[in-house]
Amino acid sequence: MPDLLEVSGLTKRFGGLVAVRDMHFTIAPGEILGLIGPNGSGKSTVMKLIMGIERPNAGSVRIDGVEVAGLASHQIARMGVGIVFQHSRPLHRQTVLENIKLALLPDSLLRLFTASHIEDRARAIAARVHLDHVIDRLPGTLPFADLRRLELARAVARNPKVVLVDEPFAGLTSTEVADFSNLIASFRAEGHAVLLVDHNVRGVAALVDQVLAMYLGERIAEGSAEQVMRDEKVRQVYLGGAIQAASRPAPPSGGRTTLLDVENLSVFYGKAQALDGVSLSVGVGECVSVVGLNGAGKTTLFNTISGLVPASGAVKFDGKDLRGRTPAQIARAGIVQCPESRELFGDMSVRENLDLGGQHLSRANSTRQLEWLLDLFPILKSRHGQAARTLSGGEQQMLAIARALMMQPRLLILDEPTLGLAPVILEQLSKALETLRQTTDITVLLGEQNVTFALPHADRVYVLEHARFIWEGTPERFAIEAGAQFL
Ligand SMILES: Nc1ncnc2c1ncn2[C@@H]1O[C@H](COP(=O)(O)OP(=O)(O)OP(=O)(O)O)[C@@H](O)[C@H]1O
Ligand SMILES: [Mg+2]
């Protein structure tokens, strides 16, 4: 069968950086091609070039034999291409149903159809991605996985021949990953051509027919998932080794001094209770991990500690009650949160974002800290002058973590730090956390659902479920007693 998508000689430069160089591949109907590679290797750029969101400097993109390179993205959409973006971008004032209807509408041809036809079709798409039970809700009220489902629904609304899916699994639990895999496999069954990017290597390998690995904008390997994962270069630049924790320093005899003491916190958003009588304590130098599925309340807990969300109950830091303090005062006291939403200054450069983090440090201290962080995340060094909003997904995540570390916090709160990071970067981050713990008395509160990452670092683990802690213990016991739904 002729290929549905044919890419050749595709090249994209951003100033002096060649983000994509001479890329070529084809995808047949009913085929899924997995595109893997380290953060910043050009995967999302390839998708944006195919979709016409970025204009290629050179090269050809053919959809079902028709050249589309250089066309505007709405024209390319009409030729039969749909994209699921790395980050969900729903229209927030519109309900789920309206969002799907709008995705159906832009094509002027569809105006010929009756309103009831569009309504029926939108409902059918919602049902297909399992959004039927939330069809009248606003996106802002949806759990994370449902937002991703909505993004998927909008991408396939007009039944595109070619579906581009950028990191569908990031932030999803293993059950949700299985559900999304089935949906993506169903596109294949219907004869679509699918291009899939994700850092969940197991998820990708189980789903794809072929894999293409990129590094620094170029192809470095291709073949079956198994072949590519075995490739020496792919192992070296992308997969890295397994995550290992250095031997855990024994807790000081006589116990640790408590640094953070959270007592009986409750939070309501309107009528919905997001935290219900939550208590936790973290000792100086300890790494405590809070694991919980999406929507369990982790981010609310961290935001409450940082003073961003009003709550009943008490938060004590270093023996002092934080009640009535502003988020800025809490940050100055030494609690620094690296939020899941990153909160970077998009128009400022990488360097400026980092300098802001270190502004309270002495000149010498901030220079030393900056050097250490740029060694830790070398890609930030090579992107130091670039505006934060143009960084790749993983580069933004690294910048957010680096900026938090720049502040030299006493308590570092990391909310889902592994989101969107390549395996090799997880390994580096993991080593960095160990170095920090061995060379400083930093205390870490780590919110994760990626327990493979969280457990090796944790002294103690709390499991948050439906706004409450349901389990507390050591990482060793976690695997036996509480891990079933996470491992
Ligand atoms: N508008 C832009 N200006 C300058 N550089 C850019 C721009 N857009 C992307 N880049 C750079 O191009 C490179 C490729 O980015 P891309 O988003 O394609 O990476 P990626 O492979 O999707 O990475 P990730 O896995 O982290 O999402 C990155 O280093 C990024 O910083
Ligand atoms: Mg990307």
Strand-residue fraction?
A: 25-35%
Radius of gyration: 23 Å
CATH topology of the largest domain: Rossmann fold
Instruction: Name the quaternary structure.
Output: single chain
Largest sheet: 6 strands, mixed
Distance between the termini: 41 Å
Question: Number of DSSP strands?
Answer: 20
CATH homologous superfamily title of the largest domain = P-loop containing nucleotide triphosphate hydrolases
The name of the CATH architecture of the largest domain is: 3-Layer(aba) Sandwich
Q: What small molecules accompany the polymer chains?
A: adenosine-5'-triphosphate, magnesium ion
Summarize model confidence as the mean pLDDT.
Answer: 90
Helix/strand class: alpha/beta
The share of residues in helices is: 25-40%
Give the number of domains.
2
Give the strand line-up of the largest sheet: 6-7-8-3-9-10
Q: What is the overall silhouette?
A: globular
Please work out how many helical segments DSSP would assign: 18
CATH class identity of the largest domain: Alpha Beta
Any low-confidence stretches, pLDDT <50, length ≥5?
A: none
